[in-house]
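Notebook entry, cofactor series.
This is the third protein in the set we're modelling with a bound small molecule. For this one the ligand is calcium ion. I'm keeping the input format identical across the series so the outputs can be compared line by line later. Sequence and SMILES below, as received.
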Amino acid sequence: MKKFKVLILLVVIMACGYVYWKVAIPSHRVKIQSELVMLGDLDYDNKWTDADCSIFEKLRNDPFSFGDDIAFKSDLNSNNLIDEEDYAILKAISGSPDTYSALSTARHFPNPRELYRYMRMDSYRLRPLYALSYPKSKDSVLTWLNNFKPSDGISYRQQLELEVFNEAVHFDNAYRKRLSGASPVEKDYAQLKLSRVQEFYNNGNFYELLLALIELVEDAETLTMRNQPDIVLRLLVFRDHIRGILKSSLYAEFEAGKNSWLDVLKQLAVFSKDDLGLEYDFTDMKSTRNFANFRNYIERTQWQYYKTTSRKADFIKLIDYAQNDRRYLRAVSRTSRRGQDSLVENHNLPMALLYRYALNEVKGNRKKAVGVLDETIRIPYSWIKQIPVNMLPHGIAFENFLLPGNKEDGLDKSRHWNVFGGICLYKSPQEAVDLAIRREFKDLKDGGFSKRAMHEFLRDMIANLNGMYHVMAIDIHLISPDGN
Ligand SMILES: [Ca+2]
Ligand SMILES: [Ca+2]
Ligand SMILES: [Ca+2]
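Returned structure with ligand:
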């Protein structure tokens, strides 16, 4: 009996303890990890010293060899620019016994508390734009850079000018690092693009100038034929030949009804044989697999493995990037009216940027990066579930706003880019091209070989080839972070 009483007592005590714990003890309902960011402390020793000033000077010369975290901490006046005032503030506080005495010497000066930011560790931090006087502009390959000063102000045009200057400095640095190791083909390609840049500058077309510079930066920092089989470069040759078909008189005559679809495809077969050694007889095409499903091409378990082992945090970071990064947002905003981008030029740069970012997140594992992209391109199921079926739009905001494309493209080209790029990794570039041609041919046939279906056939092939080339050729370690 005594034992029973003790047991009851114990239960009562435990119940009271539980109630007290539930009701009286405060709990952290939201799990947020934050950190204290000390602006200007560029060497992370929790002090402002001359060492921080000398890092700032290095950053002035070669800003993009420093990561986003250092760039963020260099914006001491928090105006989203790395500018001369930031340097002046850093100089003043590093030479003072304390920040309050630095404050007393200047009328407009940050309060000490303004130099500390308490921030969520997973918050997206926009990299401030470089707006210092750039010492290497005098002998830059961009001859106009020396005289180019973004005008003061906060209008759309002035913002574009700031971004152009930032990207020009970015390119100047990347170009210097890449030049000695570049092959003659790479140098020729760069020269071609550089003359376009000059043209945009002369015309004052700052938006196109910005995108052309971003493209050049991406080429210089990541694109290489090093350690690649010869076929990778030939994918690009084949793509340019398909673009040539779209501009040819042969194609114009097909559009005018004077040529048949077979004439166009015979020309394509000549190129596929010359460029890649792949032969086709389009009067006798056999499809051996279910071409309706992309992933039937791929070792499905492997593909699934890479997708399911990707962390949720990677998807969130990629979406954060796509929603916030200035360069990506500029690139993805280049859209045109229906039918105006017949060579599928608007589409490639944003896809290459997304892929590079995903690659960085998964430490250079290409299969993983393709998996993360593939998962992000799909419409999140939970979104669909929230929308009544009869209200469900054809294209949901996610793909239309975060992914590139024109009115006629939707998410279609992005999937092509990514999936056929993935097939290069899982199988081989040859097999990827072969599957792409057969897949698109089936679409063409289903479309009754109409003008519209032919146009789509060629455009899809361009997107597929762009993906294949970039998935293979982008190397995120080409220029190492320490700038060597
Ligand atoms: Ca320091
Ligand atoms: Ca600043
Ligand atoms: Ca298609």
